[in-house]
Amino acid sequence: MYKKLLTLLLAVASPSLFAQTITQRNPEIAQLVSEVSSDSLENYVRTLASFTSRHTLNRDEKNGMPAAQRYVLNKFNEFAKQSGGRMTAEIENFTIPADGRRITEDSPAANVIATLKGTNPADDRIFVISGHMDSRNKNVMDADGIAPGANDDGSGTAAVIELARVLAKKEFSATILFVTFTGEEEGLKGATYLADKAKEMGWNIAGVLNNDIIGNSNSSETLISDNLKMRVFSETIPAFETEQMSRQRAYTNAENDSKSRQLARYIKEVGERYVDQFEVKLIYRSDRFLRGGDQTAFARNGFTAVRMSEMNENFYHQHENVRVENGIQYGDLPEFMDFEYLRKVSAVNLASLSSLANSAGVPEEVQIDVRGLTNKSILLWKAPKIGKVKGYYVLMRETSSPMWERKFFTTEATLTLPYSKDNYFFAVQSVAEDGEESMAVFPSPLSR
């Protein structure tokens, strides 16, 4: 009787109860991930925090922003020696026009950028990993007071420096920019300068991973302590959406399928594939509630961009003057950071960036056939313009699911699935010869 009952239970049990997930890691990426060092990250953060202030308008050559910028440049140039001439670095100066708000007069500023040139001459894609160097006190106009900025955003800057160290020796098909911005706290000034330059010069920026406040695992007030999760923010409706794009989005119900949302899903899948004991949480917002970051400047110009951030912020150590009040230590100091947590977030960045930069281009002209009523779904596309592929994944998820749930592999440029497009969303991604996957492309309707 017991055996019959057990057999019946097994027969009616949900298939997902016994489903297995096979994780396939590229050994090269896994090795690079293992090289990310919490000790190195801590060293960068403590050095950055040792400058009196990294306020954008602080011009102190010894202990202010110029000195911090030279420090980052020196680190980039040190790592560039491993690159065989493929990495170069510079301090790119520009002028922030007076805005009558936080910039009272035209002011000098600079971004520090390292460029790791891609090895494929036919691949014009650029992937950006970024953080902002500038720090602030409670009064954003205080350019001279002590402002360590350890977590905001010494953590993001440290991640950029560390990825430059680890990746400098590695060859990638696409070009990677390692960028530390100035002027974020004054209104995204450095990011706006670079995003506008990229648009004007026609750069093919295929993805921006902006890191801002990524090194703390303890929250204020709620006292949550959790180093097992991070957040990725991605916009729902593109900031640059045209009328035609709006109509198609409404027609296809693609509110959760912007390019930035596809990048966020990619980061979650790849990050969790390579970084153990860590979960990437998708946040369906372009940034934290009523706040913004440097990725916004790129999104406004039509580029695919997301924000990487810690799961639980501690507001005793963010935008506060260094002081002790009512027994509480305020200020953005290194001793309140979790450098093992910062290592995990940095490793998610590295795995995602490495996979993207060696992927083939996305499939072109991805469409779903709606020329007739059918309970099957027919998808078709063209080969990517960049790189060689061994095939494609057609992705599928239920309309209520945040993540792609199934992948169907094919070597053809079309696939017919026995699942109704009324009940599921679909997308297509290319698979390069070495197995790296491109970002997913949501299909447009083929109506005639």
Structural description of this entry:
The protein is of the alpha/beta class. The protein folds into 2 domains: 27-357, Aminopeptidase (3-Layer(aba) Sandwich), CATH 3.40.630; 364-446, Immunoglobulins (Immunoglobulin-like, Sandwich), CATH 2.60.40.10. The protein contains 10 helices and 17 strands. The strands form 4 sheets. The protein has an 8-stranded mixed sheet, sandwiched between helices. It has a 4-stranded mixed sheet with strand order 15-12-11-17, with no helix packed on it. The protein has a 3-stranded antiparallel sheet with strand order 14-13-16, with no helix packed on it. A hairpin with a 2-residue loop joins strand 9 (323-325) and strand 10. Helix 2 runs antiparallel to helix 10 (339-357), helix 3 packs across helix 10 and helix 8 (259-274) crosses helix 10. The longest helix is centred in the last third of the chain and has 19 residues, at 339-357.
What's the topology here?
Layout: H1 2-12, H2 27-34, H3 38-50, H4 65-80, E1 87-96, E2 107-116, E3 125-132, H5 154-167, E4 175-181, H6 189-201, E5 204-211, E6 229-233, H7 243-252, H8 259-274, E7 279-283, H9 295-300, E8 305-310, E9 323-325, E10 328-330, H10 339-357, E11 364-369, E12 377-382, E13 389-398, E14 406-410, E15 414-417, E16 424-432, E17 444-446
Parallel strand pairs: 3-4, 3-5, 5-8, 6-7, 11-17
Antiparallel strand pairs: 1-2, 2-4, 6-8, 9-10, 11-12, 12-15, 13-14, 13-16
Helix pairs in contact: 2-10, 3-5, 3-10, 4-5, 5-10, 8-10
